[in-house]
Write a structure and sequence with these properties.
With 448 residues, the chain is an alpha/beta fold. Helix content is 59%, strand content 9%. Bound molecules: zinc ion.
């Protein structure tokens, strides 16, 4: 099933040509990379850190030589402190590849992959990645989140041409990395609901194949948190495939919509505040996303506990703030470059009262069907919280160094953070937003 889905995704993806997931893959990695890269006139250069070199890099390097590939001296970063996605590391890799006239083979997980991806993109040449941990869904995605001049940005660059994933290597990675992958995959639950809503208001229509790729197996993989934490190979391969399919869905769609919704904004906003960056290793993307995911599932629950009526729409239109009031609110909650960013993003999705009447009228008309569809897509927040805990992922704000109050505040930044439409927007348009946030943090809620 998963292999079939990966083939289906690859047939429509324009950047990645080969994906192989399996046990005992390392000895064959050299030949697989050689054949798929088709860059016969260029040597290859393995980029790793001390840990991933020991786990897989050395074996990949040897396998490439064994397959008759000319191999340049590897670039191995220190294993500790953990490598950070900073642009200067990308420059180091780019200049090393340039001076060797080589194409890159990244051996590692999120950060190493992103660094080699961006360096290769800047050189306009393909690269391959051998994944070492199922910690996030960026292996098969394009673009690289990077810190440059103190600001976190996603820099455009193509996805890898070849993605190899040896399950034996991944199974030996620290358990917290698997839990992080589980957290990133759990985001597809509220993220998918946000896409359904965005489709319903005609903002971002569903892309059937991308939807199938990313949502097809998510529920099954998430249903086995204990097996995953216990290192069960089937559960493990399901997680790896789910994360790879999620990246392919982004490629097929040409954007990150299939893989993320408002739950990711929580993570991005905390990253801007450098949450957990002083930890060793730094707090992972998947751990921050896990708490954002729970916050959004709880919000959806309160949202769906209501019934939308014509009176609600009427009231919402009367109370709809003009742009000047929205701008004032954004400026009161954010500052500096974040404020400018939020103003630009929110302006792009702001509707005047007439357009809002059309939108809310449409939502009212399809409310029953939409309500049912969202309920089917979502998982009760308490249930997902227990699952995350069983998988070894964070399930409370304190697990990632936050308080419930900080998560509450983040709702007010998340609603303005992206032009992408989510339930936070619909709640704001309906005039329900503040009350729903209050309800999430009322006694009896997830974190109270
Ligand atoms: Zn993610």
């Amino acid at each position: 099933m998963n292999t079939e889905m990966i083939e289906k995704g690859l047939a429509q993806a324009d950047q990645t040509r080969v994906v192989e997931v399996g046990r005992g893959l390392l000895p064959r990695s050299g030949a697989l990379i050689r054949d798929a890269m088709a860059t016969a006139d260029q040597p290859m250069l393995v980029v790793a850190d001390e840990r991933t070199w020991a786990a897989a890099g050395e074996a990949v390097d040897a396998s490439l030589r064994g397959a008759g590939v000319e191999v340049a001296a590897p670039l191995i970063f220190p294993g500790s402190p953990a490598l950070y996605a900073a642009y200067e590391h990308c420059e180091t890799i780019r200049e090393r590849l340039r001076s060797a006239g080589a194409v890159g083979v990244a051996v590692g997980s999120g950060t190493l992959n992103d660094l080699v991806k961006l360096a290769s993109g800047e050189l306009e040449q393909p690269y391959a990645v051998v994944g070492t941990a199922a910690s996030m869904d960026g292996y098969t995605g394009f673009g690289a989140p990077m810190t440059r001049a103190g600001v976190k940005v996603t820099m455009p660059c193509p996805a890898p041409r070849v993605v190899l994933f040896d399950l034996d290597v991944a199974a030996a990675a620290p358990g917290s990395m698997v839990a992080a992958g589980y957290g990133d995959l759990s985001a597809k639950i509220p993220g998918g609901a946000d896409w359904l809503l965005s489709d319903a208001v005609g903002w971002e229509p569903l892309h059937p194949l991308a939807w199938e790729l990313v949502q097809g197996g998510v529920a099954d993989v998430l249903a086995q948190p204990k097996a995953l934490a216990a290192g069960d190979p089937d559960a493990y391969s399901g997680l790896v495939n789910g994360l790879i399919l999620s990246g392919l869905a982004m490629q097929v769609y040409g954007g990150t919509r299939p893989a993320s919704g408002a739950e990711h904004y929580f993570s991005h906003l905390w990253e801007l505040e450098h949450l957990g960056q002083d930890r060793e290793p730094p707090l992972s993307h998947g751990f921050k996303v896990a708490i954002g995911t729970l916050a959004m599932c709880a919000f959806y629950e309160r949202f769906l506990a209501r019934t939308l009526t014509a009176d609600d729409v009427e009231r919402a239109l009367v109370g709809w703030p003009d742009w000047a009031s929205v701008e004032a609110d954004i400026r009161s909650r954010t500052s500096g470059t974040l404020a400018e960013h939020c103003l630009k993003e929110t302006r792009a999705k702001y509707l005047d009262r007439y357009a809002l009447a059309v939108r809310l009228g449409g939502v009212l008309e399809q409310w029953d069907a939409l309500h049912q569809r969202l309920v089917r897509q979502l998982v009760p927040a308490h249930q997902l919280q227990a699952m995350l805990r069983q998988a070894g992922a964070p399930s409370a704000p304190e697990d990632i160094g936050l308080t419930a109050d900080r998560v509450r505040e983040t709702f007010f930044g998340a609603v303005y953070y992206r032009s992408r439409y989510s339930v936070l927007d619909l709640a704001r348009e309906l005039g329900w937003f503040d009350q729903l946030v209050d309800e999430v943090f009322q006694p009896g809620g997830l974190w109270t």
